[in-house]
Amino acid sequence: xxxxxxxxxxxxxxxxxxxxxxxxxxxxxxxxxxxxxxxxxxxxxxxxxxxxxxxxxxxxxxxxxxxxxxxxxxxxxxxxxxxxxxxxxxxxxxxxxxxxxxxxxxxxxxxxxxxxxxxxxxxxxxxxxxxxxxxxxxxxxxxxxxxxxxxxxxxxxxxxxxxxxxxxxxxxxxxxxxxxxxxxxxxxxxxxxxxxxxxxxxxxxxxxxxxxxxxxxxxxxxxxxxxxxxxxxxxxxxxxxxxxxxxxxxxxxxxxxxxxxxxxxxxxxxxxxxxxxxxxxxxxxxxxxxxxxxxxxxxxxxxxxxxxxxxxxxxxxxxxxxxxxxxxxxxxxxxxxxxxxxxxxxxxxxxxxxxxxxxxxxxxxxxxxxxxxxxxxxxxxxxxxxxxxxxxxxxxxxxxxxxxxxxxxxxxxxxxxxxxxxxxxxxxxxxxxxxxxxxxxxxxxxxxxxxxxxxxxxxxxxxxxxxxxxxxxxxxx
Length: 477
Ligand SMILES: Cc1cc2nc3c(=O)[nH]c(=O)nc-3n(C[C@H](O)[C@H](O)[C@H](O)COP(=O)(O)OP(=O)(O)OC[C@H]3O[C@@H](n4cnc5c(N)ncnc54)[C@H](O)[C@@H]3O)c2cc1C
Description:
single chain, alpha+beta, nine-stranded mixed sheet, 12 helices, binds flavin-adenine dinucleotide
């Protein structure tokens, strides 16, 4: 008789791999199916949302949850975290109020203190009093006169380097610097791939698309689900659907109904002239979907910069958001977006959108006009359970016995989702309830920096991106 696995996970994005890694850490046998050739190959991520400061419109509760979840993920995947801060500003043209941003930051400092009280190892964003720093116009004028520092160490040094490049007369003051770090997806993919290949508890099936699921829960066969690929059938007791924007396809096999949105977005890779010192990530807030949407400039190694521009001709797309309707559980994009998801971007569109993105940044960083196209876009579709496009935390649901559906909106929610799933599997007594939640993972901890550097560079190269984008600006100490 073929093997029965405790847990079968469909989808090797950040959610699926973290669930597989956590299960393996507890010695629970699982099987992970990924239709692609490598792990964590779906929609990109570059920002650790440790406080939700990129989203002035979300609730304080979502901000707190994002901070907690981000800290948990950063503790697990330390070698994928780039410890450079984020500059947060509001252009004079925008309605957002700086006072509200400041109030929220104060709330987040208190929350961060609580997290450190719970566990001192949560202090990965530095001392709570340094979580953010506020700068008046006079401060900026003074810091603009200070010499540029190649590798900044203090908030003042980061701001001083950045402010010389920014047309700050266009910004409301004060502005802020916040300990929201960068997050390198190539490195996280490499960490997960090495760790899962190393553990005997996870059977990793790459290039394996799941084409059907059979529900045999009531047939007393000693297992609950049959997972079908093109040439094999696998038996599992517990089923986890981590298919990203394709979660609805698995629901469809199981005849389940659920409301969901999916959204296609892209960020652009540019190469700028060498500048004298490192800069933080730069955020210029704006109203999403209008011609003055948010600008986000993310620094990478060797003068590569990733750009998000929250307008319809840069990061967002006409018909880029679709919703499940009527009897359909899997929303469908139009043909143009499906082509892009299949990596079939027209060269012209890459050039036009990247150049528009560069121009968009020059509104606030005039010298960025010398930047050029630096690589293919980083793009993908993400899922949002329900019908609120502003939801940033996402969720796991358990619509059937022995079935979990992970629909995280941000990569930072992956560990919370995995832990909720493991708790549910314990409640169903498929695995022992004596397992204790751990924030460390022995398989991840056993990987050396050199191994991560090497595989992360290979993954970037295989996917057509500059290998430098797989390295960190700030080496982990
Ligand atoms: C432009 C953009 C920027 C973003 N930036 C950030 C950011 O800075 N920070 C952040 O936290 N989040 C960010 N996100 C969100 C983040 O990318 C997603 O939350 C996260 O990747 C979702 O992970 P997932 O594992 O749920 O899904 P996915 O990463 O989509 O993984 C699902 C996997 O399932 C596989 N799969 C699907 N169907 C099958 C099947 N039938 N058989 C086998 N395999 C299957 C797919 O190939 C895929 O690998 C961004 C998203 C976008 C689009």
